[in-house]
User: What shape does this take?
Amino acid sequence: MNKHPSPDQMPRRRQQLLFVETDFKICGSITSIDKLRGHLQTAIEIEHSTIPTYLCALYSINAQSNSFAYQTIQSIVMEEMLHMILAANILNAIGGSPAINKPEFIPEYPTYLPHSDKAFLVPLQKLSKDTLTIFLDIEKPKKRLAPPEADNYKTIGQFYDAIKHALRYFDFITPGGIFTGKKERQVSSHHYYGGGGKLIPIFGLSDAIEAINEIIGQGEGMNGSIIDPDHKFFDEEIEYAHYFRFNEIMLARRYQPTDAPQDPPSGSPVQVNWDDVLNMQPNPKMKDYPKGSELWNKTYEFNRTYITLLTSIHDACNGNPELLMKAIPLMYDLKYKALDLMNTPIGNGKTAGPSFEYVPL
Assistant: This one.
């Protein structure tokens, strides 16, 4: 059998090679499959690093008097967990092993987003306009024609763009492709349902690109739109990307589907009560309290639950996806322990709070 392309196939082949050369040029520092796996591990760490900061703001809110802010941030937290598992699925699909419960996985807050340009610090603190400014920095859309950035990225979208190009490049040049991971390691919606979006098992390049587009779309919107594109695929109501949902809280007004990304929301006003939040001490640490004291013990027990939760997710993403269901009661336990801390006065009008630190189990 002649393995060489026929003459009518040659233009298509040259076009493919041109695309691959372009992909390689904009992969940046992702120059090997091992480095691609390393960047996908970083993607998991980026998604995780946003969750504790969003949770602190969420737990500080009075769900009755601030129902809009509470429901908005709660839904975003669930989608960030979805993004974290999607990144783990892609890493598993190309033969990697997600590391989710190791000491080095846990950031020390306040922290920079992993491998970012260090333009801002991410704190643990109550809901406020200052806190929302940081959330908007985290989720900000990339500028039009902004290049992919594998390291020192300005936006998370640029970081994921670099991973997309690297996936295409290495899948094309590798005989048999790079998606050779065990299918049974994939976590699907059968194992977990957490709200908007779709938990996509990754079996090939198109699945990986779809998952990354979902992550980018839910965070900052796609193609200059304020709308999370998932609603088109999953018959959901129109929902806006995280950046614009945070901006609705900041400006106490809803967007309308016709609003442009650069314009403020023009929809109906919503109530945001900035004063009815728990006044948590920013960036608490276990070392703030005498070892063995009541507050030290409460903080330690919170962190044990936190690490137990991460260990359940780690195990689920490393060959036991059915264990993910066990994480759900741990999430409720985490919330109750956090609220106990945030309702404990420590003086100066402030309360204690969850520290999200690593402790050995």
